[in-house]
Design goal:
Layout lengths: L10 H6 L22 H13 L1 H5 L2 E7 L1 E2 L11 E2 L6 H19 L3 E10 L7 H14 E13 L6 H9 L4 E7 L3 H6 L6 H13 L4 E8 L6 H14 L3 E6 L21 H17 L3 E4 L2 E3 L4 H7 L4 E3 L2 E3 L6 E4 L4 E4 L2 E5 L3 H9 L5 E6 L2 H15 L2 E3 H8 L3 H4 L1 H12 L3 E3 L3 E4 L7 H6 L3 H5 L11
Parallel strand pairs: 1-4, 1-13, 2-3, 4-5, 5-6, 6-7, 7-8
Antiparallel strand pairs: 8-10, 9-10, 11-12, 14-15, 15-16, 17-19, 18-19
Helix pairs in contact: 4-5, 9-10
């Protein structure tokens, strides 16, 4: 589906859809996970995967959470451990190895893997030798297939050109740089000072080493930002020209995320200013030739993500949009989330609890969800909307043995209101998100979320734009 629009998105339209809603990296969303789903349920899901030969043959995805950071970024909502003691990484590696061993006991050694992502925290908190040990351990136990996506999140303050050589040597082909904002005052206000010159030099060095794709993360809505200051950051990012850009709205939830209590509330930009920053960001990136892939993500037309979007092969997982087919995901490390078959699982969120489970020879899973038949049907619809912007009634009916218009009668009636606003079209054969609606695809997907229909409190979610 072509994401281009005939004219810029108006600030009035952005304001109208400035409501809270899920990001749909999964359906049901992670806030619906329950403690009744245990390590035993996760173990059974792995056993069922191994029993299904066709499924077992399909490549998996691995996510490894490295929770350590040297310093605290005040906006951060990630699960992290702030420490300057780098010797904490070595014992964590040993526990990761134990967790991998538990998986190979159930799945066997050599499961094909087509996607690996190291996130955090700051994965580059680990030394080169520790990263070598981690990747060697993963490669011993899993079969990394050629042409896969092997990515790592990089804190520009923790690496240099020599460390980029190590990342290339280890097989990483995609890098994600956390930039957030180039403005020195904004950086100081969120306790993340990193000069623009440093990032530019690292990206230039990464290009020399032929990494397939470089992503830059940005956040709008941080303290001391305003539309004019963010324009300068946008201009610098356009000059940097990374293959991918992830643009996130800052959600100030100090009651949930303790680090955010250090942010001065009066310095946070107004809602109108945030909407203006978003509108200007879209105009700047699309004006510079980027494709709006969907929900926070932009990519150059030659990047694999934009190509997958054009060809209708876009997928979505807990890391966001992906070129890799929908597949089982093993989450390793503290707080990691996994997906096996029709189940989701999440590991313990504290290091103590995580290690305690593994000391007992158990998977460190503390909550999750076994999807109901209704969950599976709705997941198919929501992911089709989020990834392709198209839902074929016949495809859903054949795959799930339902009569779409009857099963989703109430949802289609609700969707008509969005259709009347130009966000989608409903025909006899399916639903099509319009080019304008693609910018608000979360709002379209929310119509099919049964949990939101029964629970209208959305404070747990970020704004959908």
């Amino acid at each position: 589906m072509n994401a281009a629009v005939a004219e810029p998105i108006s600030e009035e339209l952005l304001r109208r859809f400035d409501v809270a809603g899920p990001r749909y990296t999964s359906y049901p969303t992670a806030d619906r996970f329950v403690e009744a789903f245990t390590a035993a349920d996760y173990k059974q899901a792995l056993t069922l995967r191994r029993a299904g030969t066709a499924v077992t043959a399909s490549p998996m995805s691995l996510y490894v959470h490295i929770p350590f950071c040297e310093s605290l970024c005040y906006y951060c909502a990630c699960n992290k451990i702030i420490t300057k003691h780098h010797d904490r990484a070595a014992p964590y590696l040993r526990y990761l190895s134990r967790e991998v061993d538990l998986h190979t006991q159930q799945l066997g050694v050599g499961q094909a893997v087509s996607q690996v992502h190291l996130g955090g925290g700051s994965p580059t908190f680990m030394s080169d030798d520790e990263l070598r040990e981690l990747m060697a351990m993963l490669r011993r136990n899993f079969n990394f297939v050629a042409g896969g996506e092997y990515s790592i999140e990089v804190d520009p303050r923790t690496i240099d050109a020599g460390r980029l050589d190590t990342l290339a040597e280890l097989g990483f082909n995609r890098l994600s740089f956390g930039v957030q904002d180039f403005d020195p005052a904004v950086q100081k206000s969120v306790h993340r000072v990193q000069p623009a010159e440093q990032v530019f030099a690292l990206v230039a060095a990464a290009r020399e080493r032929k990494f397939d794709s470089i992503n830059v993360d940005l956040i709008y809505g941080l303290p001391l930002q305003n539309p004019e200051s963010f324009d300068r950051t946008l201009a610098q990012v356009v000059e940097l020209r990374p293959e991918r850009i992830a643009l996130y709205a800052y959600a100030h939830l100090p009651e949930r995320f303790k680090p955010q209590r250090r942010i001065t509330t009066t310095e946070i930009p107004t809602g109108a200013a945030k909407v203006a920053m978003l509108a200007r960001s879209m105009a700047a990136f699309m004006g510079a030739g980027y494709v709006y892939v969907g929900m926070d993500h932009f990519a150059l037309p030659t990047d694999a993500l934009a190509i997958a979007k054009r060809q209708g092969r876009l997928h979505r997982n807990f890391q966001g949009y992906s070129t890799q087919p929908d597949c089982d995901l093993i989450g390793l490390g503290v707080s990691s989330i996994g997906k096996i078959g029709a189940t989701y699982s999440q590991n313990a969120k504290t290091m103590e609890e995580y290690c305690d489970f593994l000391d007992q020879g158990q998977f460190p899973v503390v909550r999750g969800l076994a999807l109901s038949r209704d969950d599976v049907v709705r997941r198919a619809v929501i992911m089709a909307l989020m990834c392709q912007g198209v839902v074929s009634f016949e495809s859903i009916e054949l795959a799930h043995l339902i009569e779409f218009r009857k099963y989703f009668a109430a949802e289609l009636e609700a969707l008509q209101k969005l259709a009347d606003q130009g966000m989608a079209t409903i025909s006899d054969t399916g639903i099509q998100v319009t080019p304008m609606g693609w910018f608000f695809v979360r709002a379209v997907a929310m119509v099919f979320d049964r949990y939101l229909q029964t629970d209208r409190t959305r404070a747990r979610f970020s704004k959908i734009i």
